[in-house]
Amino acid sequence: MIFFDPDDKQERAEAYRLFAYLFMNIPDIELVEEFERFAGIQIKDTYEEICEDFIYLFTEGNLPNCESFYRQSDVQHFYWTAGVAIEEEFDLPPDHISMELLFMSYLIEQNLRNLEIDFLSRLCEWIPLFCEELYETANTDFYKEVATFVKDFVLSDCGAGW
């Protein structure tokens, strides 16, 4: 269940940013708590279990987290069209899920509607597949909840006519 107003541009942008950070680095405890509040759930996993699962899933390569694994990716074209350059400090491929979710947040905040609609349709093609694999591969309820929530959120956003 999604506990936000889909017509609130700021809430949508913040949701995409939150999701991006969940996949970017080992989440700190504040980020875990922010997700719990946003999703309206309470996780029973320990913080250590969540950290270990992040390492297992994303650092050890047990879960492909780039669009190019799921479909042909030309995401650089979208970044270029929006005038966005990926900073080297991110140290992530341009089609990494976190980069694409951050970019979606940016498009919403900048009110770049046409690009937002086109980019969202891309996300709808591969993020549900990623989330299904995440759900199956995760060892913690935390990442299973993240998988379910992100998948439902993106699919709901796609169906909202953006």
**What percentage of amino acids are in beta strands?**
under 5%
Please state the second-level CATH architecture: Orthogonal Bundle
Residues in helix, %: 55-70%
The number of domains: 1
Overall mean confidence score, pLDDT: 91
| CATH topology-level fold name | TorD-like
Number of helices: 8
Number of strands: 0
Q: Termini, distance in Å? A: 19 Å
Largest sheet: none
Structural class: mainly alpha
Shape: globular
- The level 1 CATH classification is Mainly Alpha
Rg, rounded, reads: 15 Å
The poorly predicted ranges are none
Q: What is the oligomeric state here?
A: single chain
Structural description of this entry:
It holds the Pfam family Nitrate_red_del. The protein is mainly α. It has a single domain, classed as Orthogonal Bundle (TorD-like). It is 67% helix and 0% strand. It has helices at 9-24, 29-39, 47-59, 67-70, 75-82, 97-109, 113-137, 141-159. Helix 1 (9-24) runs antiparallel to helix 6 and helix 7 (113-137) packs antiparallel against helix 8. The longest helix has 25 residues, at 113-137. The model has no long low-confidence stretch (mean pLDDT 91).
Structure keywords:
mainly alpha, TorD/DmsD_chaperones, 0% strand, 162 residues, TorD-like, single chain, globular, 8 helices
List the helices and strands and how they pair.
Layout: H1 9-24, H2 29-39, H3 47-59, H4 67-70, H5 75-82, H6 97-109, H7 113-137, H8 141-159
Helix pairs in contact: 1-2, 1-6, 6-7, 7-8
Keywords: Chaperone
InterPro entries: DMSO/NO3_reduct_chaperone, TorD-like_sf, TorD/DmsD_chaperones
Pfam families: Nitrate_red_del
